[in-house]
Amino acid sequence: MDRKMIDIFGERVEVLKQLPPQLVECSSDELKKGVTVGEQAWFMLEDEASVPLYSVLAKDRLSPTEWDLLQLLLKSSKGRQQDEDSPRWRRQLIEALHEPPEAFASAIRIEDDIENMLVPWSWPVFLIAVRPKDGALQEIGAEVKKTFESLTQTVEQAPFVVQDAALIMGIFPLAQKERDGNEVFMGEETAFALVDGLLSESFIEARAVWSEPIRSFPELLRTAKRMLYVALTAERFVPDQRVLSMRGLGIYELLYSIKPQLRQAYAEHVLPLSALATLGTELEQTVTLFIQCDLNISETARRLYLHRNSLLYRIERIRDLTGYDIRRFDDAITVWSALLLNRF
């Protein structure tokens, strides 16, 4: 890491003269590229100082997106030499994943001849991307790959597996019957089989994103980038959802795309701290369930085990403290989105 990184992260970087015990055995080259320990990223500064200096970036001082991107950069730096011997299609796919995740990757920085990329499969294919719920992909990568390989019992050809710091991705050539239209496409079922297998065989909780059939390499790159974005969005807003499609997460993706400083400003503007302190968990519980019940007061009261009048009292109390009447669709969506952004 050079001084430019300190300029980027500013006061959030801590500069120290001593390494933690678990990094003492690391070489200078490893430390210059960056090493993650727990929720901290350590780097040796590349300068002429007689005493080595180390910069530290803690996860709790970065936004979730910044931390994810930092991990991608670390993986890229460490794997660059190894990747030089990888097939070009694999390098190109990993490079696409190293770029900032995008909801709709309409343009990708690729070479002009990418359309005719030589690949070891026949088109079309479909993708399944896996990301563990705890994000510790490097530690369990071997188990995930093993589960991918076990799916050869349910698919015609073994998948081509690519591992990155953010995702493990399987590229599945379509079975001949699926290509001919004589068999129903099994992308979603295969994704469920994958996450179920990881949980039952390896006790790994993971999230999978599956795609519809893909017919070109540029489309594959765009799909992979969107898969990463959908997976990161799900981690933040719908952590219990195990299998996702490329259809995505709707408004959750829009909320995830908001810049961190704007998220906080919007949440505090809609929901003052005094209102949050007074209403406590009652606010989120009521608003979330009210939205899920399509603003139906009777159904919401039933699911909250409240009398209808008790729910109406809650709603009036929310209006008095926030200024928003969640019986109105616009107000309900405003408060609900602020509650979601307040989780960051």
Relevant terms:
344 residues, alpha+beta, Alpha-Beta Plaits, Arc Repressor Mutant, subunit A, 3 domains, 5-stranded mixed beta sheet, 12% strand, globular, PucR_C-HTH_dom, PucR C-terminal helix-turn-helix domain-containing protein, Homeodomain-like_sf
Explain this structure to me?
- This protein folds into three domains: 60 residues, no CATH class; 171 residues, 2-Layer Sandwich (Alpha-Beta Plaits), CATH 3.30.70; 84 residues, Arc Repressor Mutant, subunit A (Orthogonal Bundle).
- 49% of the residues lie in helices and 12% in strands.
- The chain contains 15 helices and nine strands.
- The chain has a five-stranded mixed sheet with strand order 6-7-5-8-9, sandwiched between helices. Strands 1-4-3-2 form a four-stranded antiparallel sheet.
- A hairpin with a 4-residue loop joins strand 6 and strand 7.
- It is globular.
